[in-house]
Amino acid sequence: SSLSKSLGLPKPDAQMKALWDTGATVTGISFRVVKMLDLGPTRKIEMISGTDTKEAVDVYTVDLLLPNGLTLFDLPAVEPPMLGRKELGPFDIIIGMDVIKIGDFAVTSENSETWFSFRYPPGKHIDFLNAPPVFRG
Question: Given this model, what pLDDT does residue 4 score?
């Protein structure tokens, strides 16, 4: 994913690694993103992390360009202190349910490869429970 401060990208190398996180309520950006894009916070909110730790975090307004070409303008994004630390992996963006819920998000597997896909606008529901079983020989 790429972030931008305005309609265009600030520079060609602004692509960043993102983690699509269904356990995150909101989208988050790292301190590195804040500095790279010279963002200023719009407000502070109290956030509860996955470890039930409560802390005040800055909120920024960003434009998020997804790999499928969809751009989300004026998206609020928090700056959780743990994002961007090496032990959490090479991610600068967490895409949370605030983004995931506006489209269709699917995880599928074939030939021992797991893929995920996101589309907007959303289409029809996928119901694996009532689908006929698929057997492979």
Answer: 44
